[in-house]
């Protein structure tokens, strides 16, 4: 630490203690050298949402209503929420994926 209170610089000499999963080669060196008790955490895979053909059609209609509009996803999510029960609301992103749209298409 260099400088005075309110005006200082900190230099870190250690690398961050996490594993970049995209660079992982499954060599297990991280497990053997882990300073935090060899704990391995991976994101749990999300369960695939299965929609009936009728429900999928309803989602596509809602998405198409916003096709040429710019803005946030909030109005789309609100429309989907009003059309479906809470079990579908929790999995709205999967519904978008199944309908062939992505968050970055327009929003």
Please tell me about this protein's structure.
This is 4Fe-4S ferredoxin-type domain-containing protein. Residues 14-45 form the 4Fe-4S ferredoxin-type domain. Pfam families: Fer4. InterPro entries: 4Fe4S_Fe-S-bd (IPR017896), 4Fe4S_Fe_S_CS (IPR017900). With 107 residues, this protein is mainly α. The chain folds into two domains: 2-33, no CATH class; 53-98, no CATH class. 36% of the residues lie in helices and 6% in strands. The chain has helices at residues 29-33, 53-65, 74-83, 86-89, 92-98, and strands at residues 2-4, 7-9. A two-stranded antiparallel sheet has the order 1-2. Strand 1 and strand 2 (7-9) form a beta hairpin. Helix 2 runs antiparallel to helix 3 (74-83). The longest helix has 13 residues, at 53-65. The protein is elongated and about 60 Å long. The protein starts with a strand and ends in a 9-residue tail after the last helix.
List the helices and strands and how they pair.
Blueprint: E1 2-4, E2 7-9, H1 29-33, H2 53-65, H3 74-83, H4 86-89, H5 92-98
Antiparallel strand pairs: 1-2
Helix pairs in contact: 2-3
Search tags:
single chain; 107 residues; mainly alpha; 2 domains; two-stranded antiparallel sheet; 5 helices; 2 strands; 6% strand; elongated; 4Fe4S_Fe_S_CS; 4Fe4S_Fe-S-bd; 4Fe-4S ferredoxin-type domain-containing protein
């Amino acid at each position: 630490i260099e400088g005075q209170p309110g005006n200082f610089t900190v230099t870190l000499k250690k690398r961050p203690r996490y594993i970049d999963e995209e660079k992982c080669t499954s060599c297990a060196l991280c497990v053997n050298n882990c300073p935090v008790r060899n704990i391995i955490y991976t994101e749990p895979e999300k369960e695939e949402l299965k929609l009936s053909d009728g429900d999928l059609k309803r989602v596509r209609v809602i998405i198409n209503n916003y096709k040429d509009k710019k803005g946030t996803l909030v109005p789309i999510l609100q429309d989907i929420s009003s059309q479906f029960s809470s079990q579908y609301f929790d999995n709205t992103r999967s519904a978008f994926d199944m309908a062939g749209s992505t968050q970055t298409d327009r929003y």
